[in-house]
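cache lookup: miss for this entity combination. No prior model stored, computing from scratch. Input as submitted by user K.M.:
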Amino acid sequence: MTWNGSAQIALVLTLVFVSAFPVGRYMAVVFEGRRTWLSPALAPVERGFYALAGVDPQRGMGWKEYAFALILINALHFLLLYAILRLQYYLPWNPQGIAGMSPRLAFNTGASFVTNTNWQAYSPESQISYGAQMLGLTVHNYLSAATGIAAGVAVVRAFAAGGLRTLGNFWADLTRCTLYLLLPIGTVAAILLLVSGVPETLAAYAQASPLDGGSQTIALGPVAFQEAIKELGTNGGGFFNANAAHPFENPTALSNVLENWLLLLIPFSLAIMLGHMVREPKQGRALFAVMAVLLTLGVFGAYAAEAGGNPLLAHAGVSPAMGNMEGKEVRFGVALSSLFNVSATGTSTGAVDSFTDSYLPLGGLVPMFLMQLGEATPGGVGSGLYTIVVFALLSVFVAGLMVGRTPEYLGKKVQAREIKLAMLAVLILTLFILCGASLSLSLPSGLSSLANAGPHGLSEMLYGWTSATENNGSAMAGLSADTPLLDYGLGAAMIFGRFAFMIPVLAIAGSLAAKPKLPPSAGTFPTTGALFVGLMIGVILILGGLQFMPADALGPLAEHFAMLAGKTY
Amino acid sequence: MAQAETIGLFDGPILARAAGDSFLKLNPVTLMRNPVIFVTEVVAVLTTFIGIEDLLRGAPAAFPLAIAAWLWLTVLFATFAEAVAEGRGRARAESLRRARTDTMAKMLLNPADRALYKPVPAAQLKAGTLVLVEAGDLIPSDGEIVEGVASVNESAITGESAPVIREAGGDRSAVTGGTLVVSDWLVVRITAEPGQTFIDRMIKLVEGAERRKTPNEIALDILLAGLTIIFLIAVVTLPGFAGYSRTPIGIPVLAALLVTLIPTTIGGLLSAIGIAGMDRLIRFNVVATSGRAVEAAGDVDALLLDKTGTITFGNRMAAAIHPVPGVAERDLAEAAVLASLGDDTPEGRSILSFMRDRYGIGAERPADAAVIPFTAQTRVSGLDHAGRSWRKGAVDSVLKRVGAPAPAAFAQTVDRVARAGSTPLAVAADGRLLGLVELKDVVKPGIRERFAELRRMGIRTVMVTGDNRVTAAAIATEAGVDDFIAEATPQDKLAYIRRVQAEGRLVAMCGDGTNDAPALAQADVGVAMQTGTQAAREAGNMIDLDSDPTKLIEIVEIGKQLLITRGALTTFSIANDISKYFAILPAIFVATYPELGALNIMRLSTPESAILSAVIFNAVIIVILVPLALRGVKFRAVGAASLLRRNLLIYGLGGIVAPFAGIKAIDLLLTALHIFA
Amino acid sequence: MLSHLRPAIVLIALSTALTGVAFPLLFTYAGNAILPFQAGGSLIVQNGRVIGSALIGQNFTSDRYFHGRPSALTGTDPKDPSKTVPTPYDASESGASNLAPTSKALLDRVAGDVKAYGGHDVPADAVTTSGSGLDPQISPETAALQVARVAKARHMAAADVQKIVDAHTEGRYFGLLGEPRVNVLELNLALDGSRVSVAKE
């Protein structure tokens, strides 16, 4: 670790933390349906949307209706994407003449984008046309992000007052999120990315004649606009196979900082938004702090591991001064790379600017563990917020009894129904990750997908299932994911990890919304302050992480100690 | 307060019986109620089979059998904890059962004729039957007095041996089966069906026979079941990972890992904690009709307390004197004493004792003085002696006698005293107005501090009184309650409770009269007085056998203690898991990856002893914590924040650290004994 | 519940029209008009021929040129479609080696490359593959290591070559962000005396 590296990390994180406050406040205004400074321009558009869609934005929906609307639009959109991917050959903007996707891969990709996972079992340069990128993937980047945020906002509303029968209007939330939040920031970010060198063109791949002879085909495309929402919406599906390591997605250290900032911005802002929407900003700051502490620890943990370099390579004569550079780009170096990958796994973005498969064992453990913790630090847009709220409910329940009262969170009593639903949600994640990975490692077809042998192979498979279930989308990319087992298996994991988690959480919201909101008293379990933050971190680590320890021990931990002992596989 | 008999934490016979019961409780059908321990039992059976199979095959079976043995012990310790808690309840039930007799009741055949009755076994009495109970008879069953007045010894239930008066009509008409009529006779209408009497119900409650899980317990059970499933998934999928890593793991080891990870500690102690909470209440002479009520007591946000008897002593007593301008204080005091010699009411006596304590004036009646006694009509008492006269009484009555208009200063003082909730009494001598004695309803000493304590716990106190607003406000200020209901009617109480509940708060109250019944039923915690009417006792969900309304405060503390104990042991149990990984994981994987020995930070001697130590610790900790579960975590009346900080430090951090030390110690012991070392 | 069908379909249609068509096309046309170099992929054109992209590395093997980092890209063997062959810096694809830190294949490959760079204390970027397989840059240390070779091949003084390297060494932004680096293509263009090397505007 160098001072410079640490300072780079500190600067980026500080930028994120500082900007989350005004953005969070702005989001509270947006989702409370109040006037924003963008309203003069956007309100007519918004009204037009409602008029065409036949939506009364004031009409509240109960949790079931809210969930139904959410599932409905996502199901339809999934079918549309499936069709686009299958039919892309016939669609406009396909100068490379890329053929339609196989049904299996189209299912996996559809599941991946509708769930905000954006796992790439495909190789975009050769398997996705410009048209499919724009009409399919870019739109999904917007809509799945807005879906997640809407669900998060609905959960927050459950705490805003007592005796509520509705959680808000899903269509209005979706529309306002897209118009007032995602598009404006996405547009500005896309302009900055364009300036820094990210292409935006519909021209066919360029044919170049390199200086040293031969020929070079250079893949291009309408990248900049999609790249912005890819990060802002914590989607993470790259326009290119190499994702944000590709110089066209991420040309400079500055674009890297911008993208890193974008992908952390909304998840952190949502915590602040919660504080404003429940009229107790310090509650939002407490969740913010939990997210910030765990993410910061993760970033520095990974950076420390990577900065030391690979001892096996050092033994072979490589200077350890630059750290572990395998799979990393020179322009980012170890510090910004570690920061980016941990940020993108702490959020459910899953974008990478360096390749986790080649990270040192502990450097790779950090991203995987952050995902296993449930994607709440700070998690995906919306999903991170509702996940950390679930953790807050569990924390309050486990330790809250210690103050001698039935636990309550934000004035809402936490009782059997909420605990049942919360455990159900958490259970789904554990089930898919551990059963999926364990099964795949026991089947020949699973083993044939592994790129590396030894404990690292286990890490690859475990990482894959973790990433899919937690809707992250990053990979230890050596894993060949386009196989029947993994296309269907991981596709199912993504869908269950998203919706089988989200629906119980919305049910919790519905149940809590109806309860009276209790004003805090001296006997109320305090859910702000350092003590609660510490407690929540403990609960997240123990309830969210311990079940993965045995598997993690056989993967990254075993590899770490094997590496120290000089073993190779 | 009459204490129920104290039962030691480790009472020999109870422990012996519990040890036996803990085996009976192994029945999987009943054990299924407790998912964590049920899973442990299933795993124990599995491991036992493996051990026996190994034994039969001639393979080394010591390790699986040792694991199996300790898994069985884990289950047994858990059932033992429950059995001990139940045993303590049963011992209390025994003392109650003694009161339930198989006497013959005198069933009246004709209500009008007390002479005509038929002897019927008490156990066969149906509700609605009329029975005659005479001096020396045990009341055969619960009932309502129809006719007669009698003194009844209720020590069988309350432990209080002084007889109480029971009479037809009014708030003292309920009688309880098993209590003894000491004098006179009663005609009682039986209100309880056979086997449903108060004592029967108490016995069942105390024994835990009708114990239903409380809402909080259910929620906690779900959490624990969820954790169990999560760790079950982790352990069941482990062979897949281990197979890839070419690390075969035997079922005994998986069993050990599973059982040490699932929350057996709290799972094993959960029902004991609940039973012990009820038990603590009973020791306090309060019977709760359900565990839910005890839990709710910990949750209450507001206490409705009757002013009289709870906050104040209920008698007005002299508290100050106010002379009119120009009269010496001592002259007024002496006049007040003389004028009160004819007043035998408690108020009158309080004036005498106040003047004696404050001014050293003895109450000696001059010889041949004429005493004018206090009557409700005149509302004045006095003394005439040697041509002089002293009068004391209601201000308007005295002024009428004085005849002269009162000075303005006097009128102001009267006003001020009345506004402060006190009663002004005017004192005159020889037709001249001397001043005022102020009578006050005195607030019990220390009650203000109790209320402050409650406030720190986040509980609002609400005083209920029939006094007017002015008086009520003054006493409320003095006692330090948060709110009050003046001129309260039963409807007001009910309305207040409903309003507070609508805000989502829980309310506790106590009451004894029939007209309290609706409010008692509406309140989340309704404590009926044992001396109260049957209606009140039916409506409440707790009955205070001592009929002491101040106990509501202690009841809340017991409820809180119950919840805290549950929370503390849950936190402890879950925090334990970290250390167990450090014991078991390196032990499992060290054969394949010797480097993972680095995780063996406890330096446990061999893989077998490491695993066994973790299992043993996991079992033994249940027994070690039984006393804490039964006694409850010490409760402190401080705010939630500092309570949390303290308990989190002890049970959270302690839960992380303690097993490291415990497992290491057990490992050292096993090594010293050359077991698996 | 069927009443939700209309908003669902309409909102998908509007989102697609807005974020899938209107905005990408707007960006494409406006970008092409205002920032044609960046929007088009930062292509370097020399004598009417596209030489490459300033952002994408190229495969340099001759001693006359500075070499980029090893690239892990592979493609199907044109002679035998069932096999893959290395296709370094083939920008029609992108990707990393994905070799584990404990991979024997990684160690063997690095050991070979280390030997080529003198055997000890080799800068890490010189012998490791990048994430994209298209990394356009190397560290100044790796460039320095090649100065002697390039100077010899070009019959130039090493100091002169180093001077060109230094001129093309970019520091951290604001002295803080990113890492010091040398764009290999631009450096090699400069060595060749090209004037169009950084025709970014």
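stored under new cache key. The two ends of chain C are 56 Å apart (CA to CA).
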